[in-house]
């Protein structure tokens, strides 16, 4: 019996995911930042500019953590980091008040608020 030839179909992209619960305290900020950056560092492809990617991610994650401390209130904030061969996605979810902006396109006497 002959072995079948290798498939010419590309393998599906491997998606790597990390979840982190942040307790919205200043004391946990550095540890949480370090854990997320360590995870991101391990997902950077060899051909990519790791220093640039880590610098940008550090700025973004630091801002998200700081916003959680300032605005998320009691409880915790959930972070998710997802990496595939094309992109890195950082998600944040908390119980803070939503941000409303005035929607100027449809004003009819009363201000309409738009959730962003």
Q: Topology of this structure?
A:
Layout: E1 16-22, H1 29-41, H2 50-71, E2 77-83, E3 88-93, E4 100-102, E5 113-115
Helix pairs in contact: 1-2
Shape: globular
Order of helices and strands: EHHEEEE
Radius of gyration: 20 Å
Largest sheet: 3 strands, antiparallel
Report mean pLDDT, rounded to a whole number.
Answer: 81
Residue ranges: pLDDT <50 for 5 or more in a row? Answer: 3-11
Proportion in helices: 25-40%
Going across the biggest sheet, name each strand in turn.
1-2-3
Report the count of strand segments: 5
Secondary-structure-derived class: alpha+beta
Number of helices: 2
Strand content: 15-25%
Distance between the termini: 61 Å
Question: What does this protein look like?
Answer:
By secondary structure, the chain is α+β, with helices and mostly antiparallel strands. 30% of the residues lie in helices and 22% in strands. It has two helices and five strands; from the N terminus they run βααββββ. Strands 1-2-3 form a three-stranded antiparallel beta sheet, with helices on one face. The protein has a two-stranded antiparallel ribbon with strand order 4-5. Strand 2 and strand 3 form a beta hairpin. Helix 1 packs antiparallel against helix 2. The radius of gyration is 20 Å and the shape is globular.
């Amino acid at each position: 019996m002959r072995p079948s030839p290798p498939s010419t179909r590309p393998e599906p992209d491997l998606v790597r995911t990390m979840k982190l619960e942040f307790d919205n305290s200043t004391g946990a900020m550095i540890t949480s930042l370090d854990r997320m950056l360590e995870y991101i560092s391990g997902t950077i492809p060899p051909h990519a500019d790791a220093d640039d990617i880590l610098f940008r991610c550090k700025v973004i994650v630091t801002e998200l953590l700081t916003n959680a401390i300032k605005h998320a209130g009691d409880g915790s904030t959930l972070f998710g980091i997802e990496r595939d061969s094309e992109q890195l996605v950082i998600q944040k979810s908390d119980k803070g008040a939503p941000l409303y902006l005035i929607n100027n396109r449809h004003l009819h006497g009363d201000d309409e608020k738009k959730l962003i």
